[in-house]
Amino acid sequence: MFEPPTIAQLKITILDIEPPVWRRLLVPRRTTLGELHHIIQAAFGWLDYHLHQFEIGGLRFGAPDMLNADAFDDDAQALPEDDVRLFDFLPNPPPFIYLYDFGDDWHHRIEAETLRLPETDRKYPACIDGARSRPPEDVGGVYGYADFLEAFHDPSHPEHADMRRWAGRAFHPEKFDLAKTDRAVRSAVRAAKRRAALMRYE
C-alpha cells in the first residue's frame, strides 16, 4: 500500500550573515505556521521576546491583533498563522520568509527541500543539521552583529570585555550543538502550549 510522504524537510537560513547561520528541520506537513514559529525559535535558540511574521506570496501571517495594530498603511493585513498548515502550500512552494524582531529585523529564508516518509524510530519535529550560533538578542541587527563580532574576537578592542560579558559565557558564534537543538525542537510546540495555558489561568 502506497504511503504518501508526510514529513517536510526545511532548510532555514538567517539572511545577510556570513558564514551563514542555518538549520535543517524535519516537520510534519500538518504543522501550522503558528507551530512552525515555535519550532524555529527553538531551533535557533531565540527567546521569543519580539514580534514575528511569515511572508508568503505577498501575504503576511502572524498574530493579527498585534501585527495589524502596528501596521503601516501600505502593509498587507496580517492573517492568522494558526489557520495555515504547511500542507496548504507544499510540496513545491517558493522559498518564504520568517521575520523575527521588527527592530533587529532577522529575516530567515525557509526552503522546502523535499518531502520524506516518516521514520518509525524518529520523533518529530526534529533538527538534523545546522551551523553556527544565532546572534545575541537585541544586538542591533546585521550591522550591530558585525560590530559585536569585531569586539568579541579582538582582545585589544575597548569593548571586548563588555561584549564577552554581555553575550554570556555560553555564547560563541561558531557553536552549534545538534543534540541539544534537536531536543529543544522536539519539545517546542508542547512547551509553547503549556506556557499559553498557564498564561490563560494567571
Q: Can you offer a commentary on this structure?
A:
30% of the residues lie in helices and 25% in strands. It has helices at residues 33-44, 64-67, 141-153, 160-167, 178-201; strands at 7-14, 21-28, 52-56, 59-62, 78-80, 96-100, 106-116, 126-131. It has five helices and eight strands; from the N terminus they run E-E-H-E-E-H-E-E-E-E-H-H-H. Strands 5-4-3-6-7-1-2-8 form an eight-stranded mixed beta sheet. The chain is globular, with a radius of gyration of 18 Å. The chain is of the alpha+beta class. The mean pLDDT is 91. The termini are far apart.
Mean pLDDT: 91
* Helicity range: 25-40%
The number of strands is: 8
Q: Please outline the major beta sheet.
A: 8 strands, mixed
Q: Provide the succession of SSEs.
A: EEHEEHEEEEHHH
What is the approximate shape? globular
Structural class: alpha+beta
Estimated radius of gyration: 18 Å
Poorly predicted regions are none
Q: In what order do the strands lie side by side in the largest sheet?
A: 5-4-3-6-7-1-2-8
Question: How much beta, percentage-wise?
Answer: 15-25%
Continuous helix count: 5
Distance between the termini: 49 Å
Describe the structure concisely for a colleague.
With 202 residues, the protein is an alpha+beta fold. It has five helices and eight strands.
Q: Layout of helices and strands, plus pairs?
A:
Layout: E1 7-14, E2 21-28, H1 33-44, E3 52-56, E4 59-62, H2 64-67, E5 78-80, E6 96-100, E7 106-116, E8 126-131, H3 141-153, H4 160-167, H5 178-201
Parallel strand pairs: 4-5
Antiparallel strand pairs: 1-2, 1-7, 2-8, 3-4, 3-6, 6-7
